[in-house]
Design a protein that fits this description.
251 residues; alpha/beta; Rossmann fold; 2 domains; five-stranded antiparallel beta sheet
Length: 251
């Protein structure tokens, strides 16, 4: 397939007791791009995402990452390869501060356990990197605030920061805009564009309009199959896409 594609699926299929949730999906994600996997509710996006992040094993098909077959690998194994899922890695600890949450993720990168009982002094070596990651996602002024006190949009930014602490080569985001206030969407969109400057991002989203300005490629799923693929300008004008989204309120 060549070096241009970091993640490739061939004939990816997942069946649950006779119901085929994902059928023969051939996905090719180009390196250092933002690729959106979208579709109306029930399209199979979540199942496909869980297959790619190894929360599910496919009934049929193959997944390769950097040319290596990862079809049967466990989530922890692909994380070590540099493929990180924000939801998987970045559980926010509500009673820890923003800085402490990021330091927990940095400890994992160092190969340590989560040493909650260690003195703050022993973890101070991580502060500079933690503070830089907080700055990268616009959370500098919230460093000493408990994560549980953050507004929802800023919690999402913190989740991205803790994922970035693992220095992933590829970042998978599961509906990063879900639940955001209207005013938060441009900020998280800009954040995703920023973190994609030196890595690949694959994001699942149900609303095509929110990925219009940030995605290089959009793959549209319907009933578990790829309906069409391409840049937003082409995909949004496809009559099949318009029909698939008819009545969903997402255009």
């Amino acid at each position: 397939m060549g070096d241009d594609y970091i993640l490739v699926t061939e004939g990816l299929t997942k069946e649950f007791r006779g119901f085929v949730a994902v059928r023969d999906v051939n996905l090719r994600v180009k390196r250092n791009t933002i690729h959106a996997l979208i579709g109306p509710n029930g399209a199979g996006k979540t199942t496909c995402f869980n297959l790619l992040t190894k929360f599910l094993i496919p009934t049929q098909g193959r997944i390769t990452y950097n040319g290596q077959d990862i079809t049967q690998e466990a989530p922890a194994s692909i994380a070590r390869r540099g493929l990180a899922r924000s939801f998987q890695i970045s559980a926010v600890f509500p009673h820890l501060t923003v800085r402490e949450n990021i330091r927990v993720a940095l400890q994992r990168k160092l190969g340590n356990s989560f040493f909650f009982w260690q003195s703050d002094r022993s973890l101070d070596q991580l502060n500079a990197r933690a503070d830089q990651l907080a700055a990268d996602v616009g959370l500098t002024e919230y460093l000493l605030i408990a994560a549980g006190e953050l507004a929802y949009g800023r919690k999402r930014a913190l989740e991205i920061a803790t994922t970035l602490a693992l220095e992933p080569e590829m970042l998978l985001l599961d509906e990063p805009m879900a639940g955001l206030a209207h005013g938060d969407i441009p900020r998280i969109s800009a954040l995703i564009k920023q973190v994609a400057k030196n890595r690949t991002v694959l994001m699942v989203e149900h609303n095509m309009k929110v990925v219009a300005d940030i995605s290089d490629t959009i793959t549209v799923l319907q009933r578990g199959e790829i309906l069409t693929e391409g840049p937003y300008a082409a995909v949004s004008e496809d009559p099949r896409v318009k029909e698939a989204y008819m009545g969903t309120g997402h255009g």
